[in-house]
Amino acid sequence: GSGATTHKVYLNGSLVSTQTETTYDPGLLTANTTYTWQIDEVNGEGTTEGDTWTFTTEAVPLKATNPNPSNNATGVPLDAILSWTAGDNATSHVVTFAGQIFALQSETTFDPGPLYPETNYIWSVEELNSAGTAAGDQWNFNTAGVPTFHISDVGESLVRQNGNRNRWRATVTVLDADGAAVSGVEVTGIF
Asked: Which of 68, 111, 123, 139 is most exposed by smallest CB count within 10 Å?
């Protein structure tokens, strides 16, 4: 208070400093711990005992859970987006995918880009906050193979060209493994 020449700082009931400054740095505190603190004001006329206050430090985050794709999943699409449930108290995440560490991020999804077919991938998520980190479990998944297609029908028609030459036009229908027509497939060859 006004008129004080020194300040006695108490942390958890113990005198930790007698000082003239009005700030005190307790150093590194233990995560998820409740502390009490008090400041007594001292001058030539005596000591005025201060109120006791409490605060609780932030808890270290828990591990990420619920990976998607799930651990040991098979047949994962080649364009999969990874996701997970953030661990309690986590404010950011670092993804390790296929041995590469990626930048700190706040989202709980990660796009690894195009994946190779029939490949095993290993990944993990480290959870962070200002109190510390929680190393994540290592998860893995296997991607699907290259889709199988077959040609169900080839139609042909004669197309007249200018000049003495004729050309044939082929119409090709491509089906997936379930028999559904596939669009956007390029068929090349000599007709």
From this structure: 111
